[in-house]
Amino acid sequence: MPIATTNPATGQVLKTYEAMSDEQIDAAIERADLAFRQLRETTVAQRARWLTAAADRLDAERDETARLMTTEMGKTYAAAKAEVTKCATACRFYADNAPGMLADEPADAAAVKAKRAYVRYQPIGPVLAVMPWNFPLWQVMRFAAPALMAGNTGLLKHASNVPQTALYLEDLFRRAGFPEGAFTTLLVGSDAVDRILSDPRVRAATLTGSEPAGRSIAQIAGREIKKTVLELGGSDPFVVMPSADLDTAAEVATTARCQNNGQSCIAAKRFIVHTDVFDAFAEKFAARMAALRVGDPMDDGTDVGPLASERGRDEVHAQVTDAVDQGATVLCGGEKPSGDGWYYPPTVVTDLRPEMRMWSEEVFGPVAGLFRVGSYSEAIEVANGTSFGLGSNAWTNDPAEQERFAVDLDAGNVFINGMTTSYPELPFGGVKNSGYGRELSAAGMREFCNTKTVWVGEGEAGAGAGAHSE
Ligand code: NAP
After folding, report:
1. Separation CA 406–CA 394 (nearest Å)
2. CA 403, CA 295: separation in Å to the nearest integer?
3. Ligand 1 proximity of 232 Cβ (cutoff 6 Å)
4. Helix axis angle, 163-176 to 44-60, nearest 10°
5. Is 265 tagged catalytic?
6. Are 42 and 99 in contact (CB under 8 A)?
């Protein structure tokens, strides 16, 4: 894949980059390793000041950074501005809370026959981050902010279609005061990942992206015995039960499906509706989806911009066509527009069956699958019936049902009467083929820490030896 900025609204290639050579990659890893030795000697308070400076710069540079993202991958300018602000918020969250998250945790010294025992969180070294284009700033920031605060250094291999945003990130952390090499953007294709992750100086990897990319990184990391966090795809269920407020559910469903032009891992993708309210919900939802304005992502009035690539749009249309050819019903959209830009209309498809691709695959565009179910247990069966388990949504005003959904939905998160989103305060990640490990919150920061047990005794013979010695 060429490393280039191509405007999805026009198809025009605006800027291309040469991939870095092996020598340049090795030099960057060396700088990251040297920077790690420097960074781990700094105080948490110092790193917090740098991260706060990064937040201030993000706020000050919001509009031009947002414009860059919109130009590179087509999200609406309004969404891009909100993404920059969210990144600044996450930087401040970690600057404020990391001291507590990284503080030593005392253990029960008497129970472990010690004078003193505690848990210490220490950085592990340079971490490779392989990132996707869909939230080009946020996906990186939710790794970078906690990793840098913990004292690790970052090597970013960003998606090949967002090189300018990738370079902006390196520049941002440098200008905020982090040492040279603390955060480095590697302009490389995915073929360079094996070389980078195999380097003994690189201690771990985090990947946000597709299942095939996750498998590939996990294989390399397995061979090299390195920790990984994988945030992969999802086909999140959005269940609507009879007690739900249907107007609100239909409104939120529309946003949940079409945010980021439908290209979000945690977008609701499968709308599973109880038969008692199916027709009413379907009508409200399809009307709202059809009313969304598709167009130039820089325009204030646009709800849905172009998809990020022509290949991505072709894939979405192929999934819709596959369903329609096998008898599915299109309630709105479904036609691929002609003309410049990789636009696709908000689309609702129902009468889906298991043999259709849309039943089980992730659809990465503004296309909703609508499923009719007759009971709570059938809703759970359909909701859990894919290989994914990232986010999930359930709409019900029955308190007992709310509790049951929280337990029964097989996903990394359950949002009741709301849409799945990420917060710096809450862990984020999936189960099943949606990946493993967590980002955000203290859990995300500690993924790339050495959770070190420290035991201090009196130096007496026999102390510290329990029934088992391992
Ligand atoms: P992708 O093809 O997997 O690309 C993501 C990143 O992985 C890019 O930097 C890409 O580099 C790299 N990559 C691709 N194949 C690789 C391989 N074999 N080895 C190493 N690196 C590889 O993903 P995408 O299709 O662009 O992005 C959409 C996917 O990401 C969807 O499935 C979506 O659900 C998922 N996603 C998940 C989350 C989450 O938090 N769980 C968030 C956002 C997106 P190149 O660009 O150079 O190919």
Report:
1. 9
2. 41
3. yes
4. 130
5. yes
6. no
CB 128 within 8 A of CB 193: yes
Best probe residue, ligand 1, of 3, 73, 130 (max atoms within 8 Å of C-beta): 130
- To the question of domain 236-416 being in CATH 3.40.309.10, the answer is yes
Least Cα distance to 206 among 132, 101, 98 occurs for 132
Atom 41 (ligand 1) nearest CA: 231
Neighbours of 120 (CB within 10 A): 14
**Per-residue tokens: 109:** 């010294």
- Sheet containing 449-456: which strands, arranged edge to edge? 105-106, 116-123, 449-456
pLDDT in tens, 170-208: 999 999 999 999 999 999 999 999 999 999 999 999 999
According to the model, what pLDDT value does residue 344 have?
98
CA distances from 14 to 163, 276, 349 (A): 11, 51, 35
DSSP H or E run through 405: helix 399-408
Instruction: Say whether domain 3-232+440-454 belongs to CATH 3.40.630.30.
Output: no
pLDDT digits (tens, 9 = 90+) for 69-78: 999 999 999 9
Residue ranges of the chain whose pLDDT lies below 50: 467
Is 285 in a helix, a strand, or coil? helix
What atom of ligand 1 comes closest to residue 161's alpha carbon? 46
SS3 351: coil
Mean pLDDT of the chain: 97
**Is the entire prediction scored with pTM above 0.85?**
yes
CB atoms within 10 A of CB 424: 23
Asked whether 383 and 415 are in contact (CB, 8 A), the reply is no
Distance, in Å, from the CA atom of 127 to the CA atom of 228, rounded to the nearest integer, reads 9
Closest C-alpha to 145, from 88, 62, 206:
88
Taking CA atoms, 304 is separated from 78, 84, 101, 334, in Å, by: 11, 19, 39, 15
Q: Where are the domains of the chain?
A: 3-232+440-454, 236-416
**Residue whose CA is at the smallest distance from ligand 1 atom 46:** 159
